[in-house]
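[recover] target loaded
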């Protein structure tokens, strides 16, 4: 991915871009976005917290260039899952209830220069 001057975009820009794509995708699919980049205590973190009806989604977004060797989902290893789980637990604590259905999803975004991003929503990823 390059900017208008032809310079390569950095990882931070690509990650932010992927999250914006994921938010738009979720909204178009009927989800309500509750929070982006939630940080809980003990290093808990969740990229997107969304809701569809009563279902609460804790979403990790992984954005890669299409020529990557590793699938974005594979980057959500046990350590990353634990960070997301800690963030989800912190959010549920703020709600003061665990009596909601919830799940962990991953949205994979693959980018290719000049092409529309490819989006894969992996429901109940872990």
């Amino acid at each position: 991915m390059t900017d208008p001057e032809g310079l390569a975009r950095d990882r931070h820009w690509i990650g932010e871009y992927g999250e914006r794509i994921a938010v738009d995708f979720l909204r178009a699919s009927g989800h309500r976005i509750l929070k982006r980049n939630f940080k809980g205590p003990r290093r808990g973190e969740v990229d997107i917290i969304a809701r569809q009806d009563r279902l609460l989604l804790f979403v990790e977004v992984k954005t890669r260039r299409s020529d990557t060797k590793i699938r974005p989902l594979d980057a959500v290893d046990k350590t990353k899952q634990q960070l997301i789980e800690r963030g989800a637990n912190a959010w549920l604590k703020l709600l003061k209830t665990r009596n909601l259905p919830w799940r962990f999803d991953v949205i994979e975004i693959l980018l290719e220069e000049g092409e529309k991003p490819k989006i894969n929503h992996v429901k109940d990823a872990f």
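[recover] notes: Residues 11-122 form a domain with the Trna Endonuclease; Chain: A, domain 1 fold (CATH 3.40.1350.10).
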